[in-house]
Amino acid sequence: MSAIIIYEDSGFVNLLPLVYWRPVFDLRLGFDTLLDKVRRAWPLATVQLFVRDYMTAVTAEAFGVPVNAAVSGETLFINGRLLAGRACDLPVNTVGEVGGQVAAVRLDPQRAGRMTAETFLDPQALAAALQGLPRQNLESPDVKLLNWPWDFVHANAGELMRQFRTQFGKGGIEGHIYQGAYMLNREAIHIGPGSKVQPCVVLDAEEGPIYIGANVKISPHTSIQGPCYIGDGTIIQAGAVIREATSIGPVCKVGGEIEASIIHSYSNKQHDGFLGHAYLGQWINIAADAVNSDLKNTYGKVRVPINGVEVDSGQMFVGLTVGDHSKCGINSSFATGSVVGFSANLFMSAHIPKFVPSFAWYTDSCRESYDAQRGLEIARKVMARRKVEMTAAQQALYLRLQDEAKQHERLDLADKAIRE
User: Fold this and answer.
1) I need a labelling partner for 35 at 20 to 30 A (CA). Which of 7, 50, 104, 194 fits?
2) Predicted confidence (pLDDT) at residue 123 exceeds the cutoff of 70
């Protein structure tokens, strides 16, 4: 099997703010990340990674494989935005496409040796490098490119079903089920070792499977509907309602009502309030009684301010997208399709603007720039509470991101919204 290089392309900008803190292939969907799915589809391949230059150190630290290294030998290059439910076979010197975009390319040693991370991030350079090569359509129900944050949310139910079917086939109970807890369609429920399902919990897998990882606590009077994934070390607070098509964790604390959402890991939404068709990154705190809308009163298609520029999602249901290390205060209210950037802080009794820039500090009266050094110190404290130490590479990335955000985010919508 030839080597595989998973690369970022220029499409990463449409997944901001979710990919300020991580490469695109580290986004979660279903049970795991896009990178995990590639490794599972090509289990015998040697994996390397191509990322933005400022992501090199944290990526090498996180994954322990060569990053942005020189290429030698025949190589299969795979777009980091690819949802690879199965291996895709390509002849040498052939480009695989999904929806007219480059999803993968297999190159001989000479051509592969000329490819760099910068080549894939530059659309013109990539087009020149691949000019004249034959094209093959790879798109299928199990293979698709993810272009926007809401693509992950809308693909989640199908991926949860696929992964449970292909990786497990049926459920299995290793944790402790207390008397008075109920499981509907037990064969489609997996409960990992060390997990506890307490009295008056209902696990409803009649419409889709439920996967509960290791050392999870499901508190009393909780309802969980499948398909659903609860990652290792997560706590579901008493009275929570976790609806279908939701992936949470690992290591999250959640409560209230959550529907069709992805919470990446190490984030909290412990209290009452509604989160629907949303994607939250890491180290986020959603305070008590915060709510987001995921459906317009007109039942029309939702426009979403990606990097401050509104994009027609083509979807009727789009909720909240929040970048890593951001927080909102009690009773926060988010409009349909709202986006909150990286390391933003919101303390508002009024309706929050639909687009909140990265490193913004919002009150009812103004928007101020959030000092990155101060934010870094708070982020380190937040991580330390979960016994996670922020590395030197992560600290350098955090401080770099304020300048990166200024290159990508337009503030027109934010300024207009706060004035109105």
Assistant:
1) 194
2) yes
